[in-house]
Amino acid sequence: MKYDLFDLRVLDAPRDSAFDSLAWLSTEVLSVPSTLLSVLDLPRGRQHVRAQVGLTCVAANEPDLPLRHSLAHRVCALNQVVAIDDTAQDPEAANSPVIVNSGGKAYIGAPVHGPDHRPLGALEAIAPKPREWTPVDQDKLAALASYASQTILLRASLETIKIMNRSQQ
């Protein structure tokens, strides 16, 4: 069964405690002040911030960012963890509004997958000074992103059950 981002309740949906908790846990696990869980809405050219901690540049009432400077877009395109130890050395990161406005100097992002196993967004962390992201850091973030993917998969399964139940009535 094919789901769109609205069916999965990851786009333009009310706040979600599971995703909010995951963003908070990511800050704790990686010892960073800022994290975000983003979903890419390619048809509308936006990065939708589903949950975040420590980013004053992303308002709760305006959670969309343009794709043109999206590091989550790079994470999804590569479908792997992207670690940038010094954002000043990476032209895309150096011009990212989220990085610039948060004062970020290091970035790491891991893909979040949909039920079809394709990347649909990223769990991202931002550090206030250059930082060497270790393989352990990368594994930690990948594991947390996997939790987000599993949450989305569970929701897709529940949606399938609802559809099947309606068709049997």
What does this structure look like?
- The chain is 39% helix and 23% strand.
- β1 and β2 form a beta hairpin.
- The radius of gyration is 16 Å and the shape is globular.
- The protein is α+β, with helices and mostly antiparallel strands and 169 residues long.
- The chain contains five helices and six strands.
- The protein has helices at residues 17-30, 71-78, 91-94, 97-102, 135-168; strands at residues 34-41, 46-53, 64-66, 82-84, 106-113, 119-127.
Could you give the topology of this structure?
Layout: H1 17-30, E1 34-41, E2 46-53, E3 64-66, H2 71-78, E4 82-84, H3 91-94, H4 97-102, E5 106-113, E6 119-127, H5 135-168
| End-to-end C-alpha gap | 20 Å
Helix content: 25-40%
Report low-confidence residues grouped into runs of 5 or more: none
Strand count: 6
CA gyration radius, whole angstroms: 16 Å
> How many H/I helical runs?
5
Read across the widest sheet, the strand sequence of neighbours is 3-2-1-6-5-4
* Broad structural category: alpha+beta
* Mean pLDDT figure: 86
**Element-level helix/strand string:** HEEEHEHHEEH
The gross shape turns out to be globular
- Outline the biggest β-sheet: 6 strands, antiparallel
Strand content: 15-25%
For this entry, give a set of tags.
39% helix, 169 residues, 23% strand, alpha+beta, 5 helices
In short:
By secondary structure, the protein is an alpha+beta fold. It is 39% helix and 23% strand.
